[in-house]
Amino acid sequence: MLRNKQTSKWSLLILILWSVCIGLKFADLSKFEYKMGNIPFVVDKHQKRGVASYYDYILPSGWSSKGHFVCATRDFIRYSYVKVINIDTGQEVICKVTDYGPDESIHPDRIIDLSSTAFKTLAPLKLGVINVKVKQLN
Fold this sequence. Notes:
- By secondary structure, the chain is an alpha+beta fold.
- It folds into two domains: 2-28; 45-136, Beta Barrel (Barwin-like endoglucanases), CATH 2.40.40.10.
- Helix content is 23%, strand content 38%.
- It contains two helices and eight strands.
């Protein structure tokens, strides 16, 4: 009798693992959803193409975006790292996502705002905006 209970437990465990594996096979793991406050976001972990601009700001605490490779984007998770590639020149930079933006209602074509330091590694600041490809790194 003890042997039947043990085999039924193993059979149940194998059945559960098999059903999870089948579920994962058909799930789209490249996209996931998270919430910032009560606003849901669907994030595509692979890459996005669009327009990038730059910004600089100084907080009352004295911290500034100047000199840091940081960015603001609405398509990737905060505090993750992204690789930003200038489509025209092929130059690339790795930035830490520290903020949400740019505002889609004001600039619907822009997918990322880079700090001026990060932008300068891709193109001269006088251009203002550039075409980029953004890839999630972690």
